[in-house]
Design goal:
By secondary structure, this protein is mainly beta. It is built from ten helices and 44 strands. The protein is globular and about 125 Å long.
């Protein structure tokens, strides 16, 4: 082929290529930028994390590493656990690793939770049953510190979370160790809602006329390719009927969609989809393959004759997505948000007031407010004072510090509680904000710890026996209605002979041998415990100590520890002193044994019948044992003749009473045989008869009787 023929062919080929779909995609011009539409989603995908099974761990540890773009953020954290049927609730330690200051709103209903965090990064009000643990480890040493506390059950790293749901139920098919992996699906263990400012973008499609709009939701693939359903809620603020709109849903092939929309619109989706108002019906467009790139999805919207993209959102694999469009009219845009800009442009006075919490010492109340938090909340403060306006905050460079002794600046001390008010004046407001603050005057309070051996708590004791139940009472005086003390922890230190016995931890009983008892109306705290009965080596003394936690409505948590020395009594200890319950038990046991023995002897005597005869009759039988049965000779150890006291006297051997040999028998006279048996001869006036030995065998008649023979033998 010559050059004159080749050149037109090349030109024709280039013209054909210019009409290909690729060139059409490149021709789509759409400058995506943030719009006012809002999107929220729930996902279990985390940038990095792991989940493990630790069924035999005494303490299971969960670590949340959170990063925030703002100097101050709000976080809702909910911890859930299903009811443990017949088993004791597990002990849980939740570690919060934060890089910024967070106002935490925590909910953990009915869970004995320990929360470890840095006091400088968290402002929170602890719900009942949750105890704070100081976190001193830095980020590089955090995992080592956590492993020293218990077995790590989960780790999750999150970027800018708004709300977190952590479930503590065991996760099936999980490894035994937790090793964080990138793009981890936490499954049922954790779900979270991120902040989504600036996530929704939109643009106008050039060259397309009309008012049709497109809403594009793209779900990115997850770490595991398993079937799942994504719920999509679309709310359009259209007042003039249904809009001319199309919803484009693109995701992995294993994702199906459940659509809940408040307006009719055309739907284009990968995989199966169903509509909430038509339950049980599933739809699918055969041979539909949506592109998995931003440019390809914009091209798809253009092919559907959309003149603008009202919403374009890319989210990780989520369980639920909610999209709210502000209008159905022309495109509304907003400038790209700045990361440090709060949700409100004006000063968030309410949030700033929550940051003012007093730190209480024995005689001083102090409040601190950092300037970077004021800047983050767009708040300009003109003054910060107590109720007495002469007591103003000091400017210490990076923070404002307001402090006063309990005897000045308008402090009011009533029933061991110190009261005052903080007055904050804002430049943006004409009226100042006021907040009541309180501290506990610890110098005016005293705490008593007592051990009792009965549930009536009548007489205190300083000794307890191994295997014995003890009753403990902790009281505060004087009782104050505003202060409700709680038993935060108790332990019995038996060192060096034995380990420390944990009795109460995180305001919950530690073990089945410890029971929390109802507190008295005056705030007296009580519990009982059963000390183990056998220890090697046996401890001789121990220290019982309890920590009392107290909190007022507007103050931080205050703890006070009280302890006492106990003597440990071993059951086999020589010369041990019997405690009162032991003495009472022994006395009652002795009385019961004596009563039963007396009743048995009386029963034998009262049920023994006696024979009577006419006085003076020859050969008449005297009272004797009249049992209808006779023991055989081999039962008595004799030959085939019967035994009588005169003919076969008894002597004692190691095997019991036995008849004497014939050579050693005494003469067959009544007197001699009675004296041999140790019974004095009867009175001469008494009539004589024969007597049995209690075996039911009547002996021959004799001229002397053996009175009460059945009782003696």
């Amino acid at each position: 082929m010559d050059r004159s023929t080749l050149c037109p062919a090349v030109a024709l080929l280039l013209a054909v290529c210019s009409l290909s779909p690729t060139s059409l995609a490149e021709a789509v011009r759409c400058n995506l930028q943030p719009v006012d539409n809002e999107v929220t989603y729930i996902t279990s995908q985390v940038p990095r994390g792991c989940v493990a099974q630790v069924p035999n761990a005494t303490v299971e540890v969960h670590i949340l590493s959170l990063e925030f773009p703002r100097a101050l953020s709000q976080l809702d954290l909910t911890v859930q656990m299903s009811k443990q049927n017949g088993t004791r609730a597990r002990e849980v330690l939740l570690v919060l690793d934060l890089d910024k200051i967070v106002h935490l709103r925590l909910q953990a209903p009915g869970i004995p939770l320990q929360l470890a965090y840095n006091n400088q990064h968290v402002f929170t009000g602890m719900p009942q049953g949750v105890s704070a643990v100081p976190l001193t480890a830095v980020k590089d040493q955090l995992r080592t510190w956590a492993e020293s506390k218990g077995a790590i059950a989960s780790v999750a790293e999150l970027n800018d979370p708004k709300s977190i749901l952590l479930r503590l139920d065991p996760v099936s098919r999980s490894p035994s160790s937790c090793r964080p992996q990138p793009n981890m699906d936490m499954g049922h263990r954790l779900e979270w809602w991120p902040h989504t400012e600036g996530l929704v973008r939109g643009c106008a499609l050039e060259g397309v006329a009309g008012h049709k709009e497109a809403h594009i939701l793209r779900v990115l693939p997850g770490s595991e390719a398993k079937p799942r359903t994504v719920t999509v809620e679309v709310k359009l603020s259209c007042t003039s009927g249904d809009p001319d709109a199309v919803l484009i849903l693109q995701g992995p092939p294993y994702v199906s969609w459940l659509i809940d929309a408040n307006h009719n619109m055309k739907i284009r989706a990968t995989g199966n989809y169903s509509i909430k108002i038509f339950p049980g019906k599933s739809f699918r467009e055969e041979h539909l393959v949506l592109p998995d790139t931003t440019q390809g999805l914009l091209e798809e919207a253009q092919r559907l004759n959309a003149s603008r993209v009202a919403s374009f959102v890319e989210v990780p694999l989520a369980s639920a997505i909610s999209l709210q469009a502000s209008s159905c009219g022309g495109l509304q845009t907003s400038p790209t948000p700045v990361e440090t800009t709060p949700l409100k442009e004006t000063c968030n006075e309410e949030l700033l007031m929550t940051l003012l919490r007093p730190n209480c010492s024995d005689d001083t109340m102090t409040l601190e407010l950092k300037k970077n938090l004021m800047l983050s909340l767009k708040c300009n403060i003109s003054s910060l004072t107590f109720l007495d306006h002469r007591c103003q905050a000091e400017d210490r460079g990076d923070q404002l510090v307001l402090h006063s002794a309990y005897s000045s600046c308008g402090m009011r001390v009533t029933e061991s509680v110190v009261n005052n008010e903080v007055v904050v004046s804002f430049l943006s407001s004409s009226s100042p904000q006021r907040k009541a603050v309180q501290c506990i005057d610890m110098k005016s309070l005293s705490f008593q710890l007592g051990l009792y051996l009965t549930p009536q708590f009548l007489q205190a004791s300083n000794a307890i026996e191994l295997g014995q139940q003890g009753f403990v009472q902790v009281s505060m005086s004087p009782p104050t209605p505003e202060i409700m003390p709680k038993l935060d922890s108790c332990q019995l230190d038996l060192k060096p002979e034995a380990d420390t016995v944990e009795l109460i931890q995180n305001q919950a009983a530690k073990g089945s041998c410890v029971n929390l008892l109802d507190s008295s109306p005056h705030g007296v705290m009580r519990f009982s415990f059963l000390l183990r009965g056998h220890m090697v080596p046996t401890p001789k003394a121990g220290t019982l100590s309890c920590t009392v936690a107290m909190r007022l409505r507007t103050s931080s948590l205050v703890r006070r520890t009280v302890s006492m020395r106990l003597n440990i009594v071993s059951p086999d200890m020589p010369g041990k002193t019997l405690v009162l319950p032991a003495v009472l038990g022994i006395t009652f046991g002795a009385f019961l044994i004596g009563a039963l023995l007396t009743a048995a002897l009386w029963y034998i005597y009262s049920h023994t019948p006696w024979r009577s005869a006419q006085p003076g009759a020859p050969g008449a039988a005297r009272p004797a044992l009249a049992q209808p049965e006779r023991l055989s000779s081999h039962q008595l150890g004799t030959t085939d003749h019967e035994l009588t006291p005169g003919s076969q006297p008894f002597h004692s051997t190691k095997d019991g009473p036995c008849p004497l040999p014939l050579s050693q028998r005494p003469a067959a006279s009544g007197g001699t045989s009675l004296e041999h048996l140790g019974v004095p001869p009867p009175h001469p006036a008494e009539p004589s008869s024969s007597v049995g030995l209690g075996y039911g065998c009547p002996g021959p008649q004799r001229d002397r009787t053996l009175p009460y023979m059945s009782t003696l033998l």
